[in-house]
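ok so i was messing around last nite and threw this chain in just to see what happens. nothing serious, just curious
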Amino acid sequence: MIQIGNVILPDFPLILAPMEDISDPPFRSLCKTYGVDLMFTEFVSSEGLIRDAEKSAKKLDIFETERPIGVQVFGHNIDAMLRAVEKIEEVRPEIIDINYGCPVKKVVSKGAGAGVLRDLDKMQKMTAAIVKHTDLPVTVKTRLGWDHDSIVINEVAERLQDVGIKALSIHGRTRKQMYSGSADWEKIAAVKNNPRIHIPIFANGDIKTPQDAKKIRDVFGLDGAMIGRAAIGNPWIFKQIKHYLKTGTILSRPGVQQRLEMVRQHLSLAIRWKGERLGILETRPHYANYFKGIPNFKSFRIRLVTEDNLDRIYQIFEEIEHFYSKSDVF
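result:
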């Protein structure tokens, strides 16, 4: 059992990473269906929240079926972060997560996200202020350090634990690496093995298969797996991992019929959340991922990402179903 504040999670929980323009309510709902244990919202700008920016406020939409859920927030100004936390508390998430890991230039250049890895005193001060400002458990997601010559994650973990965070998720790359190279799980394990550390340590980065998750648990001894890119178009990865950890056997990737059911559900949820026009538009980027690896799909994909009429979209789904009905990928 893993405990974060009042949140009780199973041993070795599977966690959906916060991903911009991906981990919105429709996608989170599907991941929940397939067994994810804990999810986080897309990361929310503190400055956007306190200015009541519509895009930022919309990221706070949480549905009861998603719980337990955390809201991830980022920013560079401590006062703005505290005011944003007050707004986040209004939607009653189970956790507040601070993003100290985003490597994107426009975030880092302002001293937010992974930018704060160059100022550990500020990181500690901001985290301490947030922990004191809320009754909700505070967690952090970060990276190993700024670059290869400044791997500071062990110091970061100790400092943040000392000011009261309840769990730490570590992406096994530096900011300079962005998403290139390989995640270094050994350095994450070194944090877990630090005798001073008693909070849960979750691994993130390059966890792409059930075998990867098992290695994270059994070889590196980490407390849970946070999965991001591997879940895009593949929310059933959580079910696959749990099945493998329990039985040692691999569930096959769903065929076309199952993928169609998932896509229909995703589109329906998106329309219910954003309305028909935006729901159609925001589902488009997901089609290529859901049907990745399906042979002879290109013509269907092009039609799906250009069609605006809902009835015709469902007609395309029916054509896909008919086309592949006699195929071994069905």
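not much to say yet. The longest strand covers residues 69-74.
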